[in-house]
């Protein structure tokens, strides 16, 4: 039985290094939090070795979804989902649309207004 | 000896001889429990003269034809005791040391009662001392193993926090993964010691876990986790009560499989539902086990022969012994055989009572344009063996065009969640991300707003009202319902 004084270890059974097969880096550095993912062909069968997270990721990307949201749905850190998404993009199961084209980044004027609006919420 | 040190003033008289004889007999009875030197020698025919004191020493040799009956009695008692002592050393004591039932005396009726009692007392003392020592050693081991396991878990907690506090640092993440991996193995070894000491894991997982994930979790507890390849049914799951035992059991089998096959070869694991439950098969492509070792290993992994912490000599036996203990305790059937890949195939059968079905983790689904019947999902449903992965139900687009206005993802508290938020489709035990719901739109349309949003200065057409791109009075959307009347959206990027 758990002894008193033992920390409440409620971590996951699946450790992060297992989920990413030991990798901490995405195979492509273009995948960021705001990257939009979409499965070009949702009916395409994944390989038999695909994990449950990968299957779920492709399934939810039947509609355009940002990496951040996919992470929230999967309940996994963004860094891990980025690695998985990169693999799936490499294998052609997902397509990435860059979220923020550099030239179209919101200018400080807009950000100021956003800030103003946010303050108005309270 | 008790003979007086003073020289006798008279020659020994007959009554003294008689007293000596009686004393010797009593001495022999009293000393019967003490092991005498000849006991450890081979049982060889002994000369008549032995260590028993010969009170007739001072006499002329006695005639062989007329032995003193008391002397004969004495000798016979001595021989009996000798026989019993040998039986004690060769049979009864080894049994007591091995912890098996101790047989009784060989000829209890021929033995003087005091001697028999003394022998029994000796054995009971040995047994008690053994049991006490075993138990205190067991408790000490359990305590020490528990400390090691606790420290491993502390390391893991510290590491996970570190990576989460510093997002976007792959080097740090990689380091934490390595430390996590090492700590996970440390925890497994510590838990193995506990299990061999008849102590069971305190870890309880809150929800059922798909068997493919049980195998992956198990692979995380061995060194060569990347060699493990899992395929098979994605929806068969283990009940929460056996998740931890199964993970540990499979980890030990995977450890054997990876250690006894070439480092470059994969270890193939397949999962499938069967009539009697679910099966996990683990194949390695090593050299396998010879017939004798395989038979012995099968005895151990099945739990038919339980090994404790004192019985595991060789390294491979540690894993097998742990497997066997878990198998027996939780009613799992484990067997070993030859693999078609040349190595060993380990088969774990999880009985139907411990198996349930889970869905793929899919985001919350919402009714689309025509409301579908919501499917209430009770916890475990009757299992159907279906290896096809069903596509999940409709997915919520992250945000949609509500008629013509846009709603960005919003944080909502559960208290204030209104009834349009559905919460089906997430497996029990997982925290659900709350998704704002909106009528679904075509995927490209769902993407369009986002692209337009990132184009920043571009206004978004809102059908009912003419746009006012230069509008300064930016009214913000109501937390829950209010349609935005502004052309610019607040960035609520998570």
TrEMBL record, chain A:
Lineage of producing organism: Bacteria, Bacillati, Actinomycetota, Actinomycetes, Kineosporiales
A Pfam family assignment: DUF742
The protein's name: DUF742 domain-containing protein
InterPro entries per the UniProt record, alphabetical: DUF742
Domain of life: Bacteria
UniProt-listed PANTHER family: DUF742 DOMAIN-CONTAINING PROTEIN (PTHR36221:SF1)
TrEMBL record, chain B:
Signal peptide coordinates: none
Positions of the UniProt region annotated as Disordered: 27-67, 361-494
Keyword Transferase: yes
Enzyme class: transferase
Residues covered by the Histidine kinase/HSP90-like ATPase domain: 241-354
UniProt cross-references to SMART domains, sorted A to Z: HATPase_c
Catalytic activity of the protein: ATP + protein L-histidine = ADP + protein N-phospho-L-histidine
Molecular function, one GO term: kinase activity
Keyword terms of this UniProt record: Kinase, Phosphoprotein, Transferase
The protein's Enzyme Commission number: 2.7.13.3
Biased composition range(s): Low complexity: 27-37, 425-448
InterPro entries in UniProt: HATPase_C_sf, HATPase_dom, TCS_sensor_his_kinase
Biased composition (Basic and acidic residues): 46-60, 369-380
Keyword Kinase: yes
Name this protein carries in UniProt: histidine kinase
């Amino acid at each position: 039985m758990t002894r008193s004084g033992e920390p409440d270890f409620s971590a996951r059974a699946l450790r992060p290094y297992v989920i990413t097969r030991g990798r901490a880096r995405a195979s492509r550095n273009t995948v960021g939090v705001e990257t939009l993912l979409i499965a070009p062909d949702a009916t395409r069968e994944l390989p038999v070795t695909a994990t449950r997270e990968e299957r779920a990721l492709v399934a939810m990307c039947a509609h355009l979804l940002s990496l951040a949201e996919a992470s929230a749905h999967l309940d996994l850190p963004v860094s891990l989902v980025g690695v998985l998404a990169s693999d799936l993009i490499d294998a052609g199961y997902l397509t990435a649309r860059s979220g923020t084209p550099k030239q179209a980044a919101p200018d400080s004027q807009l950000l100021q207004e956003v800030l103003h609006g946010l303050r108005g919420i309270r | 000896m008790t003979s007086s040190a003073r020289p006798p003033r008279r020659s020994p008289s007959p009554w003294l001889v008689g007293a000596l004889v009686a004393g010797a007999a009593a001495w022999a009875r009293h000393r019967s429990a003490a092991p005498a030197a000849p006991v450890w020698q081979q049982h060889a025919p002994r000369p008549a003269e032995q260590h028993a004191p010969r009170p007739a020493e001072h006499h002329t040799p006695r005639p062989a034809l007329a032995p003193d009956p008391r002397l004969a009695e004495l000798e016979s008692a001595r021989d009996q005791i000798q026989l019993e002592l040998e039986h004690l050393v060769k049979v009864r004591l080894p049994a007591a040391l091995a912890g098996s039932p101790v047989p009784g005396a060989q000829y209890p009726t021929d033995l003087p009662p005091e001697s028999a009692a003394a022998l029994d007392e000796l054995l009971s003392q040995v047994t008690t001392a053994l049991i006490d020592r075993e138990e205190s050693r067991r408790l000490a081991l359990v305590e020490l193993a528990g400390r090691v396991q606790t420290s491993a878990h502390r390391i893991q907690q510290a590491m996970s926090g570190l990576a989460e506090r510093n997002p976007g640092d792959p080097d740090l993440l990689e380091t934490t993964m390595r430390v996590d991996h090492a700590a996970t193995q440390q925890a497994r070894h510590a838990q193995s010691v506990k299990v061999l000491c008849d102590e069971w894991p305190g870890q309880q997982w809150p929800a059922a876990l798909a068997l493919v994930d049980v195998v992956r979790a198990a692979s995380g507890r061995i060194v060569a986790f990347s060699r493990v390849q899992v395929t098979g049914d994605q929806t068969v799951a283990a009940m929460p009560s056996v998740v931890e035992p199964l993970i540990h059991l499979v980890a030990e089998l995977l450890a054997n499989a990876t250690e006894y096959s070439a480092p470059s070869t994969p270890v193939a694991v397949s999962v499938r539902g069967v009539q009697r439950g679910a099966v996990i098969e683990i194949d390695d492509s090593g050299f396998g086990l010879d017939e004798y070792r395989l038979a012995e290993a099968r005895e151990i992994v099945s739990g038919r022969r339980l090994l404790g912490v004192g019985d595991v000599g060789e390294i491979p036996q540690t894993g097998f012994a742990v497997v066997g203990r878990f198998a027996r305790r939780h009613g799992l059937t484990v067997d070993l055989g030859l693999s078609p890949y040349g190595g060993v195939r380990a088969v774990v059968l999880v009985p139907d009572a411990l198996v349930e079905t889970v869905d793929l983790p899919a985001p919350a689904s919402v009714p689309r344009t025509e409301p579908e019947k919501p499917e209430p999902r009770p916890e475990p449903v009757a299992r159907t063996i279906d290896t096809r992965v069903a596509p999940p139900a409709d997915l919520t687009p992250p945000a949609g065009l509500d008629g013509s206005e846009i709603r960005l993802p919003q944080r909502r508290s559960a208290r204030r969640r209104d009834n349009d938020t559905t919460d089906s489709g997430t497996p029990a035990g997982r925290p659900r991300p709350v998704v704002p719901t909106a009528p679904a739109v075509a995927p490209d349309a769902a993407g369009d707003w986002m692209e337009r949003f990132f184009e920043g200065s571009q206004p978004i057409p809102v059908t009912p009202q003419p746009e006012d791109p230069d509008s300064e009075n930016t009214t913000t959307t109501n937390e829950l319902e209010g349609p935005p009347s502004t052309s610019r959206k607040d960035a609520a990027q998570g």
